[in-house]
Specification:
Largest sheet: 8 strands, mixed
Keywords: Membrane, Signal, Transmembrane, Transmembrane helix
Oligomer: single chain
Pfam families: Peripla_BP_6
GO molecular function: extracellular ligand-gated monoatomic ion channel activity
Structural class: alpha/beta
GO cellular component, one term: membrane
Protein name: ABC transporter substrate-binding protein
Strand content: 15-25%
Length: 763
């Protein structure tokens, strides 16, 4: 009977098959051990309920809420989920009403959802809140302002300021900034929340002014038109109506009111509710003849409150905008998407911190663990990183983030020229002196800094060169602002040298190209900067890398409470066509332009600056700044074609050595050895193109694999010579054949690995 050993001795094909299978097994094993991107596996999904108005007049806003939460859920799932468990959204339509909210809340508590993200309005949140409370199910709203949402409800949290804060800020804004001493108020009589808010505004404004009239609008479609006309008749008859506080939260009701107001010819200034601070609201008026003749006819100049304005937001908010637009065909999100995205951040963090069992029997226990985790997010020290600043909840489970005021212009929502920021610890300041100087305003027992807004633009003329750790560029920078010239006293912390005159400063605030006063007494300053700037590069993926080049400045003289640089959306003509954005980068031979983003920035200092009064202080000061981030992708195919061709030829030469006769010991060892030394020289030349880095770049793994391949012919020949000397010529032959198979298999595995990990970055 023929044994397995005898079979292999007599069957040459079997030997080749065995060798090939062994080599393939080795290659596949190595490939499987290669690092892979983490993904949420097929484990049990963690359900998160989302309650939003998906039908009716608020449907577009509700869909934005869902889309933004889903955007974050997708990111979490791509990165491995929550301890390996993917997130699954359970979406419910609350119809934007209290009755609808109660109905979906009853459905949600019967599911295995561990947390709820919703609702949009205060009326809906209050109605559903008691049901969540009874079932000990935590909920987070991104936008509901009424104090009752979280009052005495330890299972409800909010990502936004309260109605009291909103009323105070809007009142002092109308009086201190817009200089109105009288006001009128309109609210929807179908909303309890709007009625309460109108009373709050009346009280806050009435402390230092006079509220002439408060009207309850009948929003019932059958009575709405008549009710609006009656209000407008009384408004027109009022000799000094002042500013009109429009506390309407339903966009269709506000639309009807504004159309009637403008068509009546009344020019009453309007300060609108947070719910109207969406650019989508301004575009509702496209269908009217007045709007077609004069874009912005109904909304230009209208002020609105908002918890998030993207022109004055930081890098994280701009990344959210870009990701949302890529996912939704260029559609721009509003504060709704941003705040519920932050709610999703807080929810996922709580789920991660909880020791969840995720079984039908553990739902109650898991919900309690989630609530405990949310409740522990209770100070800036443990805050999460959000789009609008640190995410945490105060003692009332509310957010301490500030109210922002914006103004509509050409359908765009722009930060108003002055803002107010809350003073957390007024006792640490010389309040009488600051109040007298006008730097601080007071509303009841609250104090606010006056924050100047500087409309800022950086327009690139040309990006000349990218080096190992720096780049050289030429650009215009401009500022539009009220008041003195403090906003132009800036510095570029990454500046290395003036590329035109090395002995001159890279930026001189006293030497603008233009300095003039434009409409409404706004100062305009234009500068041109040409210089070299250092940049932090990440070469881990080199040469398959993309790099972010950042131009940034800060103002070391004023804190960010007093001054903020916002994106001059109109001056920069954003969004720009792709062809115009690419123009400054056309001179770069090895780089492709991908995208550019602008964002408000800050730099932080904890220095006492030698002041004895600050020796025991732990206060950190944030200084305002502004950044432009340019993302460029290396032309990898061009780089590989120019630089790796010699390595490919050397690899072929090394492989050919395995086909040399067995008795050619010197050529079989010297050729791979020479190729190995040549590869080392090539690697050193590549490394000279990079700065000193403390990690291995992607290209180096190619070389390390190549060095291993060079050793194969040398090792095989050395072992084979010994085998031949001892009379095992056949063993030498099979060893050589195995090496001929293994060599290309390793190359195939290497190519496969780089194709999987970097294939998408080649084009």
């Amino acid at each position: 009977m023929q044994t397995v050993s005898d079979f292999f001795k007599t069957n040459r094909l079997a030997k080749f098959i065995a060798i090939a299978l062994a080599a393939m097994f080795l290659v596949i094993t190595i490939a499987l051990l290669m690092p892979r991107s983490p993904k949420a596996d097929n484990a049990i999904a963690i359900p998160i309920a989302v309650a939003a108005p998906l039908t009716g007049s608020g449907a577009s806003g509700g869909q934005e809420m869902v889309d933004s939460i889903q955007l974050y859920a997708d990111i979490v799932n791509r990165e491995g989920g929550i301890n390996g468990h993917p997130i699954k959204l359970l979406t419910y339509d609350d119809k934007g009403s209290a009755d609808g909210a109660q109905q979906v809340a009853q459905e949600i508590v019967k599911t295995q959802a561990l947390i709820v993200l919703g609702h949009r309005t205060s009326d809906a949140s209050i109605a559903a809140g008691s049901i969540y409370q009874d079932n000990k199910l935590s909920a987070i709203t991104g936008t509901a302002n009424n104090e009752k949402v979280t009052a005495d409800r330890p299972y409800y949290f909010r990502m936004v300021y309260t109605n009291s804060t909103l009323a105070s800020v809007l009142s002092i804004y109308a009086q201190q900034v817009l200089q109105f001493k009288t006001a009128t108020i309109v609210y929807d009589n179908a909303s309890k929340n709007e009625q309460v808010q109108s009373e709050r505004i009346k009280t806050a404004f009435g402390a230092n002014g006079t509220v002439k009239k408060t009207w309850a609008l009948d929003s019932d479609p059958n009575n709405r038109k008549q009710s609006i006309q009656q209000i407008l008749n009384e408004l027109a008859a009022e000799p000094d109506p002042g500013i009109l506080f429009l506390t309407l939260t339903k966009e269709d009701v506000a639309e009807d009111f504004l159309v009637a107001l403008k068509q009546r010819g009344l020019k009453t200034p309007v300060l609108g509710d947070q719910a109207l601070s969406r650019e989508a609201f301004a575009k509702r008026f496209d269908k009217y003849d007045e709007e077609k003749k004069d874009p912005g006819f109904f909304t230009d100049g209208m002020y609105v409150a908002s918890p998030l304005l993207f022109d004055s937001a930081g890098a994280d908010a701009q990344e959210f905008v870009n990701a949302y637009q890529k996912t939704h065909d260029g559609k721009l999100p509003s504060y709704l998407g941003g705040k519920f995205y932050e709610a999703a951040i807080a929810a996922v963090d709580a789920l991660r911190k909880s020791d969840l069992q995720i079984t039908p029997a553990s739902v109650s226990k898991d919900r309690e663990l989630v609530n405990t985790a949310l409740s522990s997010l209770n100070s800036r020290k443990v805050a999460l990183r959000g789009l609008t600043g640190p995410i945490y909840f105060n003692a009332n489970r509310d957010s301490d983030q500030p109210v922002r005021v914006a103004q509509f212009q050409d359908y765009k929502l722009l930060s108003a020229s002055q803002q107010f920021t809350t003073i957390a610890n007024p006792k640490s300041l010389n309040l009488p002196a600051e109040l007298q100087a006008g730097n601080i305003v007071q509303a009841g027992d609250q104090f606010f800094w006056r924050q100047r807004v500087v409309y800022t633009g950086i327009d690139l003329n040309k990006l000349n060169r990218i080096d190992k750790a720096s780049f050289t560029t030429d650009f215009y920078i401009w500022f539009r602002f009220n008041g003195n010239d403090d906003p132009v006293q800036i510095q570029f912390p990454d500046a290395l040298a003036n590329s035109v005159n090395p002995t001159a400063p890279i930026f001189d605030p006293k030497a603008p190209l233009k300095a003039q006063t434009v409409g409404n007494g706004i100062n305009y300053r234009l500068y041109r900067v040409r210089g070299e700037f250092r940049n932090a590069f990440d070469f881990r993926d080199y040469p398959f890398d993309s790099q972010n080049l950042t131009l940034r400045f800060d103002n070391p003289n004023l804190s960010s409470d007093r001054l903020v640089y916002v994106i001059d959306t109109l001056g920069l003509k954003l969004p720009k066509p792709d062809a115009i954005q690419r123009k400054p980068f056309q001179g770069l031979q090895l780089w492709d332009f991908k995208e550019m983003s602008y964002f408000q920035d800050t730099s932080r200092s904890s220095s006492t600056q030698g002041d004895p009064d600050l020796f025991q202080s732990t206060t950190q000061v944030d200084y305002p700044g502004f950044s432009v981030r340019m993302t460029l992708k290396r032309k990898t195919l061009v780089f590989l074609a120019k630089n790796l061709l010699p390595l490919i030829l050397l690899a072929l030469l090394t492989y050919c050595a395995l086909f040399f006769p067995y008795n050619m010991f010197v050529p079989r060892t010297m050729a791979p050895a020479s190729a190995l030394l040549s590869g080392i020289v090539l690697l050193l030349s590549f490394n000279n193109q990079l700065p000193e880095v403390g990690y291995t770049v992607a290209l180096e793994y190619i070389f390390y694999t190549y060095f291993g391949l060079c050793l194969i012919p040398i090792i095989v020949t050395a072992i084979g010579a010994k085998l031949e000397k001892e009379g095992y010529k056949r063993a030498f032959k099979y060893l050589n054949i195995s090496a001929r198979i293994l060599y290309p298999m390793i190359l195939i595995a290497l190519i496969w690995f780089y194709a999987v990990n970097y294939g998408s970055k080649l084009f």
